[in-house]
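Re: Re: ligand-bound prediction request (bumping)

Still looking for help on this. To restate: I need the protein modeled with nickel (II) ion bound, output as structure tokens. Inputs repeated here so nobody has to scroll up.
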Amino acid sequence: MAILPILEFPDERLRKKAKPVATVDAATRQLIDDLLETMYAAPGIGLAANQVNVQQRIIVLDVSEEKNAPLALINPELLDKQGQEESDEGCLSVPGVYEKVRRAEKIRVRALDREGGALEFDAEGLLAVCIQHEIDHLEGKLFVDYLSPLKRQLARKKVRKEQRQRATQPEPTRLRGVA
Ligand code: NI
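Reply:
Sorry for the wait, this slipped through. Here it is.
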């Protein structure tokens, strides 16, 4: 397993649309393991493959308190969305920025699991938010795209500040769940 470097806003590679996975094989599972290791190390609660510059439709998540419930979704799709909910979001590609985003409250998801088996399930709460956030990544979309131009500009400044701090302080400054 390996910890992979995470691209950060405003890197244009985060804007590429990821491609569907045609065959789920050993290389896919290796990538999933690397994504999970990278996500846990960050630490974060979700990560999309194109955040580590791999243009494949794969996301990993773990919204459990104990960090013992890894979930990998290949070619995830939203089949249904219901209700609306606003919650604070952060993103491993936009370090130091937390803003309210409005998303569907309940979703129905279709995907393949790490063995290539078909999955279909309902999600709500933090899991639903996280899945929508990660599927956006696969489309080249970031949570800051939902903010006003002014807030997006401030986010850019905060990321630069975070990057400078990181250069001088080895200790991680990320304290909250980010995806
Ligand atoms: Ni994110």
